Amino acid sequence: EIVQIFFERYPEAIAKVRDAAALRDSTRLEKAAHSFRGYLVSFHAKRAADAALELETMARRGEMANVEETFLRLEREMDLLMPVLASIDRRQAL
């Protein structure tokens, strides 16, 4: 059930992180990355959660120099995680 909720909320949640990172809006990025990391922690997705935490920490400190690189790392980790979550969701539907 939590996977289904995540899939419903994922597009908006990642968009908030992406938009805040692109705008280099540290206040929005800190909040968006923190919220997004909460989802990832519940799945024990350590590498993706670490990337989200790094974005959150960078934003909190106002250190936005590497924000694009870190966001790309988060996206790569999500590309690996999403098929795994989809397989869990399919198994629960059976």
Report on this structure.
By secondary structure, this protein is mostly helical. 87% of the residues lie in helices and 0% in strands. The chain is built from four helices and no strands. The protein has helices at 2-23, 26-42, 46-61, 67-93. Helix 1 packs antiparallel against helix 2, helix 1 packs antiparallel against helix 4 and helix 2 packs antiparallel against helix 3 (46-61). The radius of gyration is 13 Å and the shape is elongated. It starts with a helix and ends with a helix. The relative contact order is 0.16.
pLDDT averaged over residues: 93
Radius of gyration: 13 Å
Give the number of DSSP strands.
0
Query: What distance separates the N and C termini?
Result: 13 Å
Which structural class do the helices and strands define? mainly alpha
Strand content: under 5%
Shape: elongated
Could you state the order of secondary-structure elements as H and E?
A: HHHH
Specify the helix fraction band: over 70%
The biggest beta sheet is recorded as:
none
Q: Which ranges are low-confidence, i.e. pLDDT below 50, for 5 or more consecutive residues?
A: none
What is the number of helices?
4
